[in-house]
Amino acid sequence: MKSMGVPMRKYLMILMAITAISFPSWSRDEKLNVKVLYTGTISPPEAETIKGGSWFKKFSMVHPAFFIQHPKGTFLFDTGLGHSIKTQVKDMVWWARSATKFIQKESAADQLKALGLKADRIILSHAHFDHSSGLIDFPSVPVEVLQEELDFLKTKNASPAIFPSLFNEQIVWQTYTLENKSYEGYAKSRDIFGDGSLILVGMPGHSPGSVGLFINLASGKRAFLVGDTVWNSDGITKGLPKFWISSKFADNKPDEVMTRILELQALQKKYPDLLIVPSHDAKAVGAFEEMMNRN
């Protein structure tokens, strides 16, 4: 049998190199798991969550933290409502306090302690109170945000949903940057563990440093945690923003938020099986929890 020619050997070497680069190290033998930690609930009229919604129909909302377990480490994506939330919200401007009529549940810190679990770090989708209230419950855990979000939360009167009592000097802030690598239509991204399983993308609008998290399971199932770009999943399917007063309270740049909504709408049409999860939509979060329980 003749030995393999040089051109063929070079071709195979290049092919092997491309294969090694193209396929992530994530495999079916490794386990990615996400636990949804419910820290509170609230049921406003649907009309407060989406333009044109009903004032006579309640809409179930939740305040979750997402505990993510990966073979290379663990982290919380948001903290939900923390131990001190009832005290913290006293700093909120009076006209915005309808957002605090929630039913508080066990904090993420207490739930993790009861489960014997520990987060190596916390990554915030954004810094609003219902996502960052629990930071002070994790005094030694690094908190990762984009520089734009850190600057925003340190700006006086930046948002009615951000106030001084949410943060203290014990919080270990760490900033990161998104790479100029496009992912699913988003210009910049961050592959958290370098294996394609957990991808952060920039979603400015709701706040300057808002990010979303793609979760890609070895089974082929996928989810996209999109923070507060919308509160109600119907906002994506119908291409509608929040109620105008809700947007005034919550959205830093409503025009940018609308752009993000249309991007999500296009993404959902492209990938009908992709589960897009607004953080406060109880039905969507429940569907995500069920997906992870079946993983």
From TrEMBL:
Gene3D superfamilies, alphabetized: Ribonuclease Z/Hydroxyacylglutathione hydrolase-like
Keyword Zinc found: yes
Gene Ontology molecular function: any one: metal ion binding
Superkingdom, natural source: Bacteria
A Pfam family per the record: Lactamase_B
SMART domains the UniProt entry points to: Lactamase_B
UniProt keyword Zinc, yes or no: yes
InterPro entries for the chain: MBL_superfamily_lactonases, Metallo-B-lactamas, RibonucZ/Hydroxyglut_hydro
Domain Metallo-beta-lactamase, chain residue ranges per copy: 62-280
Keywords attached to this entry: Hydrolase, Metal-binding, Zinc
Protein family according to the UniProt entry: Belongs to the metallo-beta-lactamase superfamily.
Designated name of the protein: Metallo-beta-lactamase domain-containing protein
Species whose genome carries this gene: Bdellovibrio bacteriovorus
